[in-house]
Amino acid sequence: MSARLRWRKFVSNLMLTLTGVCALVSVAVLFFILGYLVYNGGTSVNWAFFTQLPKPVGETGGGMANAIVGSAKLLLAASLIGVPIGFFGGIYLAEYSGAKVASVVRYAADLLNGVPSIVIGIFAYSMVVLPFKHFSTLAGAFALGLMMIPITLRSTEEFLGAVPRMLREGAMALGASKWKTIKTVIVPAAYRGILTAILLALARVAGETAPLLFTAFGNRFWSQGWGQPTASLPVMIFTYAVSPYEDWHRQAWAAGLVLLGLILIINILARTILSRGIAVPRS
Amino acid sequence: MTASSNPELSVKVNAAAGAPAAKENAAAMPMRMTISKLNFFYGSKQILFDINMGIADKRVTALIGPSGCGKSTLLRILNRMHETVATSRLEGEVLLDRQNILAQDVTSLRRRVGMVFQRPNPFPKSIFENVAYGPRINGFKGPIAEVVERSLRNAALWDEVKDHLHKSAYELSGGQQQRLCIARALAVEPEVLLLDEPCSALDPISTAKIEELLVELKNLTTLAIVTHNMQQAARVSDFTAFVLTGQMIEFSPTPQLFTTPTDPRTEAYITGRFG
């Protein structure tokens, strides 16, 4: 075997190993985090964790029922704010706007998507918290909702744009108006993709902490309403993790595990939706 | 659907054979649509030049010509599908039952003038929902299942799909999908049905079925078909228009155009010297 050939084989094997290891590491990180969460928090994920309020400092036990409900309320309200704006904006971009307007809005949405979440938090603080002089669930939902707009908008636009032109023409040739065509053919043809994207947007903001720190704030008890501060899983993790108490650390790990589980479930749900129903053939 | 304004003329049709009576002549036929002095542009590029022709009632009119000659564009103008291109511009007159189609509400025009496209384009819905779509969006409140069955029967598809109406339309073969699209168009009872190369994506057996169907459909509605297949035009149509580089070279009863063309360019095209 010539030296040159040996060198080639060596490089080939080296790159195979290198790329393989990198691929393995990417997967391993997820499982390592998952394993670490289970190891540290697994024992604290029990019935009480889901049903009880946090215990006062010094007492062990208790749960994070208020934070779980708080997170759910925040996500619900955030979706109500972010999804319609993103969805209808996406329809406008894909179906009505000219190329110039579309590129400007698209660019702005991408920038908004890149705004650090802490900045979104400050913005929500000055827009909602300061005028009402109150931390509130709504303020937190406002911040999270803003973060959902660009993802929903871009993916709605993308999935609508992928609907074949011949389907539009088919509907129009039957006497469907533009809006009717969009409503009865184009959106139904794209809805699985759009729904998946919305779920992924939801999964993404579910773990956001920074925008909630000074909007939804936190609460050791049940939130008294949409206008009052509320606990949420990410903020709870933050508060408990930096506390000096051993039991709180365990609960923070448990909350992390629950949050990750929630996000995994949303992801799996999204994938299931994407693989069901009548798919439009690509042409 | 309104009846032919000149019913005694229909006696001339040799319905059984599908071959038109050779004596039939374009001038004597009642016209469902008439196109006069039509010029059409995409931006500054002129696509059609001074087109004059008619679409005879309850007959099949074929538009033939080489690729890119403007025959599909001409067909799409008949239900204003050309308007999907923002830069398009039209001069001249297109009448449907003596009324200018450009002055009408476009959605009600398209309900009266249906269209079947080059490639089957069923919606990502069930077979039933595909056919029911047109009547539904047009506010049909009656027994929709009857309309669906009648339309599928008229499109010669009923027997093949009656046991799985709620399956996805994409589970049908290409030829069945195209007949489904025809059924979908028939469900709104169009006065004119435009077909833009409806067989170009189909195999010969499916093509034969559709051609057979078109001849049947003459009893029901008025048809205009674009085809690049001259044999197809000869088999199914009563009148044929030959279009070349945006100009109407010849418009005659089909037997006449294929046997004794008046223009040398028509003769050159149908004998296969170009195109």
Low-confidence stretches of chain B: 1-23
- The helix/strand class of chain B is alpha/beta
Question: Structural class, from helix and strand content of chain A?
Answer: mainly alpha
The H-level CATH homologous superfamily of the largest domain in chain A, spelled out, is MetI-like
Q: Pair with the most extensive interface?
A: A-B, 23 and 29 residues
Radius of gyration of chain A: 24 Å
Tell how many strands the DSSP assignment of chain B holds. 10
Strand content of chain A: under 5%
CATH superfamily of the domain at 28-122 and 191-270 in chain B: P-loop containing nucleotide triphosphate hydrolases
Q: Within the CATH hierarchy, at the fold level, what is the topology of the domain at 28-122 and 191-270 in chain B?
A: Rossmann fold
Q: Count of DSSP helices of chain B?
A: 10
The CATH top-level class label of the domain at 28-122 and 191-270 in chain B: Alpha Beta
Which shape of chain B, going by the Cα principal axes? globular
Give the SSE string of chain B.
Answer: EEEHEEHEHHHHEHEHEEHH
Order of helices and strands of chain A: HHHHHHHHHHH
Provide the residue-averaged pLDDT of chain B: 87
Count of helices of chain A? 11
**Radius of gyration of chain B from CA coordinates:** 18 Å
CATH architecture assignment of the domain at 28-122 and 191-270 in chain B: 3-Layer(aba) Sandwich
Explain what the structure shows.
The complex is a heterodimer of chains A (283) and B (275). Chain A has 283 residues and is mainly α. Chain A has helices at residues 3-41, 47-51, 65-96, 99-114, 117-132, 137-161, 165-172, 178-206, 210-213, 233-241, 246-274. Chain B has 275 residues and is an alpha/beta fold. In chain B, the strands form two sheets. Chain B has a six-stranded mixed sheet, with helices on both faces. A four-stranded antiparallel sheet of chain B has the order 2-1-4-5, with helices on one face. In chain B, strand 9 (239-244) and strand 10 (247-253) form a beta hairpin. Chain B is globular.
